[in-house]
Every structure is written in C-alpha cells, then in structure tokens.
Amino acid sequence: MSADNQASRLRVLVGAIRHEVHSFVPGTTGGDAFARRGNPAGEAMFAQATGSSLEGAMRVAEARGIELIGSVIASGGGGGPVEEEVYAHHAATILAAVEEQRDRIDGIYLPLHGAMATTQRDDPEGDLLHDIRAIVGDELPIAVSLDLHAHFTDRMASAASVVVGYRTCPHTDIVETGERAMGLLADLLDGTRGPVARTVHRKIRLMASSEAHDTTFGPLTAMQALARELEAEPGVLAVSIFATQPWMDVPDVGWSAVVSTDGDIEDAQRLADRLALALWEQRERYHVAKTPIAEALAAAHRVAREQPGTGPVVVADGADSPSAGAMGDGTQLLAEIVARDDDVRALLMVTDGESAHRAAKAGPGATVELDLGGRLTPQFFEPLPITAEVVQAAEGSYRGADGVEVSLGQRAIVKVRQTTVVINEHKASQLDMDPYLQLGLDPRDFELVQAKSAGGFRAAYTPIAAEIYDLDTSGPCDSELTRLPFKRITRPLWPFDEDFVEPW
Length: 504
Hints:
The protein has helices at residues 3-8, 31-35, 44-47, 53-64, 84-101, 124-136, 154-159, 174-190, 219-231, 265-281, 293-306, 332-340, 353-362, 434-437, 458-461; strands at residues 10-21, 66-79, 107-111, 142-146, 162-165, 198-203, 236-242, 256-261, 313-316, 346-351, 367-372, 384-394, 397-399, 405-407, 411-416, 419-424, 448-451, 467-470. By secondary structure, the protein is an alpha/beta fold.
C-alpha cells in the first residue's frame, strides 16, 4: 500500500472492560480474576480475539480497509462487583488511549458486556462511555456491542452512536455481533449511512431468569423476529433486545428495547416502545418450569436401559451457574445420588480448592474423605461429606473455544460409586464441554452429565444429549427471583409485583 493510501485509511480505536456482576455471591472481583484471563493489550488483543466480537470486527475492518488500534480488552468473567480500583485502572488505560489518539482516529468500537457493576458504581459501562464521549466530542461515532444480558441505561444511550446486542441465547452469534457493529460503524465513517447516528431505548419493569431468555424456542423467538422486522424500517440501523442479567440488584434494572438510527429520533423511540410493549405482554410466559432431581435420575436410567447409544441425559443446575456469576460450589445433585446410593454413571463438577488440593496430594488410587463444596457460598450451600477414590490430578490452563485463556488451578477427578466428580480450585464456566474434555472426559461416555448453566449450555450439549432437563435446585442463580434477597431494585418490577399494568 502506498504512503498516501496508508495515510488515508480510516482508523478505529478498540477497547473494553468486560464483567457480569452477580449481587448474591460473596466477595468482590479483583485483579486476580482479570489476570487469569490475560487482559491482552495493544496488538496482543487482535492475536487473542478468536471466537469474540472483536474477531468479527476485525473481519469487517480488513474487508473495509480500516485500521484497528488496540488499547486493552480486560475480562473478569462473572461474580461479585469489580473492585473499584481494578475498574479504574483498566478504564484509565482506555481513556489514555482515547486521549492520545483522538486526533488520529475516526471512530471507536467498544465490545462490552453491559452488566458490570463495581464496588462504587452501578453503571460503569455508562460511565466509561460518558468519559470517552467527553474526550472526543459529539461528532465522533462510537459503536458498542453488548451481551443479550446487558443492563442498558440512559447513560449508555446518550453516549453511544450505535448499539448492537447479541440476538441469540445461547450466545451463538458473538462473532457476528462484532461484524454487525463494525459494519455499521464503517457505514457511518464512509458515508454509506449517517452522518449522524443516535440511540434510544425503553426500559421495561420486567425481569426473568436466564432459562426464559432462550431464543431457540419460547417467547423470545417471536420477539427477536419482531426486532428484525423493525430493523428493516427506514432510518433504522440496529434493534436490540436486552434481557438483563437477572441476579443484578441495582436501581432501575429491567429489560430494554434499544433502537439505533440515522433517521428521525421520534420514529426510533416509537419503534423501541412497540418492541418494549410486545416484550411486556409476553411476561407470563417467562415463568420457568424445572424438573426434580429424582425425576432426572430416573430419566437417566430409563434412557440407558431403553435407548442405549443415544447419548447422555444432560441436566442443568442453573441455580449454581458460574457463567452467570455463581461459584459452582453446590452439590445438590451429588447429594441426591449419594443419599440414594445410586449407581448412575454420572459426570459433574464442583468448585472447591481445598478438596482439589487434598485429593491431588493423596494421589491416584487413594481413598479420601472430603467435605465437598459449600465453602464459597455458605448462605446457599453446605459441604457434603463423601468418600471418594482419586482418579487423576491435573493443573494448568487451556485456551477455550472463545480464545480466552482459562486457568482453573488445581484440579482433581474422583469417583463416588459410579459417579465421576471433577473438582476445580477456581470456578469453570460450563457453557461448553471444554472443562471436561480438557481432562480426557467425554460427556458422551456417561449416562448423566451435569452442566452448571442457566440455559447457555444448550448450544454445546443439545447435539449430544438424548434428553435435557433443567434441575429444580436452589442457589444464587435461582430461577425463582422472588426467593432471592433483592434490596435495591426499583419497584414495581415484575415478577416481584404482579398487579401493576404500566410497563414503564
């Protein structure tokens, strides 16, 4: 490329702080949680973007001749609020890059999550967007991509030019979301759309558990189809539904209908209201029905007996979902197996660093007495006494399907009768089978497999499962939201209040 062509290339700055808060787990999310995920900065961001929204943005940037400039992609996973100094450090890195590059860049892309909170802030993403906008002024376009579980706010809407959310749950369009966001930003930069884009939204007095967010069946399937219909309206750039992280205890929480437009702002607001009202009118369909553990165990035996070779029965313990912020230290399924002296060939996972180290120290072939689990969220769980045979010990990290480096610390595999239990020092997201496969455990070799996930596991597990059940368990990610100790939410809010009729 000639020097003149190089000089004329459009430039877009990229950066993000990503975290999904959970208000009902103990402790905070500190720098160590972020460090385990690498926090790639500068050019390293682009080398580690596999499976992410940034990968999609990179594809579009290359095709459209846009130069991407990296600041940092800091990821803390999910859990308690991010420690304010950790957020401030990463925010300062992004803001310093914006300040340094503001006279050289044509746009900004932020692949955020959207449901973060810190020990001092309820809306850190909105604050970050506001601080960036204060540096670059009103004209520079800012594109933002968000998880479907974002808690969208007025502050985000006022600072973002274009907002694009995941359309799927389980999240199978993460890369495509980055493509859409960068494609719209490129359109604004080269004059295909715009030149001005703005975002409006309608916050709905509605919350529902993650199992009700599935877009492959149920009410959100039709709602996403309506969003695509509205997206085809003149002047509309993007329409997004945000079914907010349901275990987020902050003021003004609720679902949102969001419209980004390069046309009439009042028309965009009418479309957002139309979508919001449709979401509200479906609210009774967001209740979640779950299966007792005893019935799921019976199903596993039935399938093994009557349908051999069709795959395992997969059971979801969504109430203890690490990807939703829980710690993964619940043992309700295993407790039922032990109490029944059940010989089901089951595979499951528990977070318990003390037990992992004890089993590893004893070594393969040893018999150990463990008080398993219940250490990290004692307000929901208690340790389960078990006698187990140590099968394997392992340690180290691996790169997940999304490109993120995963470190689970000390790991041990033990057996309780015919049940195989993986014990991790650090919690493992169970949206896919990687935490099992990395230890040489293939879920297809078992009769019953547990995924601690509130819905997101289905994309990975449906192809191998004979049957799937959401277990009726309790925990910090309880699907019955009214059983949890919410204190700061703004009322009225469905389902906590069911008799009001004004959706906003």
